[in-house]
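Subject: for your reference before the review

Hello V.,

The reviewers asked for a structural picture of the protein, and I figured it would be easier to keep everything in one thread rather than splitting it across files. Below is the amino acid sequence we used in the manuscript, unchanged from the supplementary table.
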Amino acid sequence: MTNPDQPTDQPIRASVCMATYNGSKFIDEQLISILDQLGPQDEVIIVDDASSDDTVAQIRKFTDGRIRLIEAGANKGYVKSFEQAAQASRGSAIFLSDQDDVWVDGRLEVMLDALGSAAVVASNFDVLGGGPRPDIPRLRSADSTRHMANIFGVMVGYRAYYGCGMAFRREVLSSFAPIPPYLRESHDLWLAILGNTSGSIRHLDGSTLLRRLHEDNATPRGWRSLRVILVARVVLVKLMFEARKRLRASA
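And here is what came back from the structure prediction:
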């Protein structure tokens, strides 16, 4: 494991950015599935959000120099943790990864290939151990260029953009981060809005990871109250305007 501030002269191909919090039960299996696919020119950036269990101890058991661990002094939420991990990354491609999933063999190369033609890539997932997926349609590659329809799908809630199945080119980072301060969840929808607003996003038909569904998932599994849904839609509208502003500024 490397020091977070350790400089490197070697170009980094892919940075896997992970936010951890009390994930000691699952972190080993996930890290193994990731490290098995990475090359020597790749890295894993982990921001631990002040876990109260032994998550950090489990991570430190890995002696792999491609892992960079950043320990937060206080809990600030997974959105800020992902933001910090992305900003600390050095790779040409930035992958988002949850702490409790398992990567499917070949995920890295498939998504790197997709990033050759689009700034943002979003893939599907299957459920670890089998079982039904959440009641939301799978992404289809045929919809990749239907940008307005995709944004409408985000607003309505039927476009299955999950951060754990997404990656983006480094050029997107200046628009992605800092994440708008009013966004406390759904950083993945922010990334999807950026990709669709810029007209450069690609959907993959296949599943590139196995998602572990359990009671502690950050993404809710059931229906939310009408008030919460309406507040979330207001936030999404604000994100649409913010995306246009940032993309114009970076053009």
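For the response letter, the relevant points are probably these. Residues 226-250 form the longest helix (25 residues). Strands lie at 12-20, 43-48, 67-71, 91-97, 102-103, 120-127, 166-169, 201-211.

Happy to draft the paragraph if you're swamped.

O.
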